Amino acid sequence: MIDQVIKFAVDKNIDRGKVIEVIKLGSTKIFSLTHIRNSGAAWSMMAGKTWFLISLPVIVCAAGIFYMYKIRKGSKPELISLSLIIAGGVGNLIDRVRMKEVIDYILFEPVDFPIFNFADICIVIGAVIFCLSIILSDVKKYKQDKAEKAAEKNDG
Comparing C-alpha atoms, which of 126, 140, 28, 39 is closest to residue 79? Predict the structure, then answer.
């Protein structure tokens, strides 16, 4: 919902292509707001492939919901991460279904990076948390298995 509210505000208050500098250090631009429409994914990859860019998030969201149900009493970080990924996917999916493109507005100027939106942030943060939770879970399991083997060795 946050994503759609921000996109609505951007659509109504910032002309397409206009850049509003928000953070600037001296002559170096850091963070700006703008208003573009993107019919593709990052860097406009797959522009015009609306059927694919609608199908993929539907599949990912369905798989995420299924997996969340499966682990509903499990790892909180995994559940939170999946919630973020699904929320971001739905935020961009609403735009694609409604307009066949996504409203992007966040411009991080120090690097050559695509203009993005709140839904994209949710997806990336969710994916990072998900990967970290899987890695930490594996490390914990490895240490537990190692401790069990050491205990068996000492008993035997």
Answer: 126
